[in-house]
Amino acid sequence: MPRAFAVLLLCQLLGTIIQEGTGMPIPGPVLGLLMLLVYLVRSGGPSPHLRDTGQGLLRYLGLLFVPAGVGVVTELQELRDNAAAIILSIAVSTLLGLLVTGLLMNWFLRGQANA
Amino acid sequence: MHSLLPLPFFHVWTYLQTQPLLGLTATLCVWEIACLIDARAGHAAWSNPTVFSILILAALLLVTKTSYQAYFTGAVYIHFLLGPATVALAIPMHTNWPAIKRHFVAIIVSLSSGSVVAAGSAMLIAHAMGAPRAVVISLGPKSVTTPIAMGIAQNLGGQPSLTAVFVMITGMFGAMICTLVFKLARLHDWRAQGLAAGTAAHGLATARMLLLSETAGAFGGLAIGLNGILTSLILPILVSLFGF
């Protein structure tokens, strides 16, 4: 467990150093994700420790969003003032995103058996 | 709280407000209650422990007139784990690696098109309806999984907490409409359905698809990770292109 955590934090740390150092807009943890993915593909997969710790963290991912989400109390005015714009924006864009991705992928896979 | 509590308790209350213990304990207890509610509701599409927890805790802060900063003194210990959890998303992506390799071009083209359309239309609609820049930017990454979306919003000058709310609304809306949309659009391939659900409405819609098909769930899972990476790359370009 400590070793797996060290690996995850080290990836995040390296990613954050690169992001801060170069000013690139990709969040440090996403760069860390990419580094770990490259490592996993090259090494043939995670160790049992890393797999257990990673899956343990991801199983409770929903809990990890809560503190930031509660920050909504500081944005209530902003949400109320722009409620119509926000609702329409989310509804239309989510519908378009579903259709564009799904129809394109369906077109690419045409003729192939549905797995 | 001052008028409600006898003086000794008021001192305890003000003391606790400066300590991490209360915020941390409250978050974990409320989470457990929200999970109980979710279990009672039979894990229905409208029921989500994250949303319940946020609503309950936000209501508690408002009722007790506790500042968000005081709450976050404790909650930060949970919040910190978002970073390593984001890195850990590499593990399920590695599990799906054979599928990603087999359909590489199809996945990248479909996913980035859907990602650009979703993020672009979200920002354009909000901008056209007069929303301020912070709201417009915070809407950009709303289809991406929360930890990555908040990082993107932060980097582009949005409000991470607004983004967290938008991500949640997007997920619930996507989970509600995805099966109906696929039916109406005559989209029958599970791989295409899963990829679309994960790209447009991240984990919440993916969880919905996973109930119907393992394949759809796997493609949803890889779409979540890939869309997080792609949106990190694409959104800064879109934002400067639109001049927001």
Strand composition percent of chain B: under 5%
Derived from helix and strand composition plus strand pairing, the structural class of chain B reads mainly alpha
Number of strands of chain B: 0
Helix content of chain A: over 70%
How confident is the prediction overall: mean pLDDT of chain A? 91
Which segments of chain B are poorly predicted (pLDDT under 50) over 5 or more consecutive residues? none
Question: Helices, strands, pairings?
Answer:
The complex is a heterodimer of chains A (115) and B (244).
Chain A: H1 2-22, H2 28-43, H3 48-59, H4 61-64, H5 66-70, H6 76-81, H7 83-108
Chain B: H1 7-17, H2 20-40, H3 49-64, H4 68-79, H5 82-88, H6 90-95, H7 97-102, H8 104-128, H9 133-139, H10 146-156, H11 160-184, H12 190-210, H13 214-242
Helix pairs in contact in B: 2-3, 2-4, 8-9, 8-12, 8-13, 10-11, 10-13, 11-12, 12-13
What key attributes describe this structure?
heterodimer, A: 115 residues, mainly alpha, 2 domains, 7 helices, B: mainly alpha, 0% strand
Task: Describe what you observe in this structure.
The complex is a heterodimer of chains A (115) and B (244). Chain A folds into 2 domains: 1-64; 70-115. The model of chain A has no long low-confidence stretch (mean pLDDT 91). In chain A, 78% of the residues lie in helices and 0% in strands. Chain A is mainly alpha-helical and 115 residues long. By secondary structure, chain B is mostly helical. Chain B folds into 2 domains: 7-80, no CATH class; 88-242, no CATH class. In chain B, helix 8 (104-128) packs across helix 13 (214-242). In chain B, 52% of the residues are buried. Classes of the chains: A mainly alpha (115), B mainly alpha (244). At the A-B interface, helix 1, helix 2, helix 3, helix 4 and helix 5 of A face helix 2, helix 3, helix 4, helix 5 and helix 6 of B.
